[in-house]
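U., I forgot to send this yesterday:
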Amino acid sequence: MLIKIKRQDALNNYQAFPVHGYDYDKDEEKFFYPKVFKSYILTLPSKSFKVHAKVLGAELNKLTMALHADALIFLGDTKTPWLHQTSENKPIKEAQEYLIDKKVGKRFNGALKVNTFELPTFIKHLAWLTRYNAALPYFYFTDQMQNIIGNICQYGNLHLDTLNEQANKVFNSYVGGSKFKYGDNNSCYNWFSRTSAISGRQSNL
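Result:
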């Protein structure tokens, strides 16, 4: 199941969500990121991004259940809508059609609450959207108890912050038996091509 939540309601109920915007009164950019306990970058050994996106969804679903959560909540760090950028790329069109089928409108910029049954499919599509659509915001996720904050980068890595000691223990215990591998900032590059650039990634509408 996928449930839509109005943006302000999500920010009120899940105050750990990072926010990036502009304060026109002060004429300056504004940023918010919660205080974290520990930060991680996780990679997955995959032969193609198609396989990678599928495995990423399955592994993140297992992590959600290890945290005793039945859903994750996703929200962009800016007010940009989920369907802001169009593309003729087949995986992107499929991802957008998936969101439209779930009643996500063109102007919707709120949060999406995704249960563990739906999560593997949702993550597969989100990974493709993030990989190729540079105009979209960073889509962060948290669990209902706000134990973690994470996002998927364009290279397919999972960037995750634990927000308390207990969550950190559960997280590390889970990773040890998962397909994830601990990485670092040098892990964020294009694994699936001989060039560093991601062919087809664009920021135009």
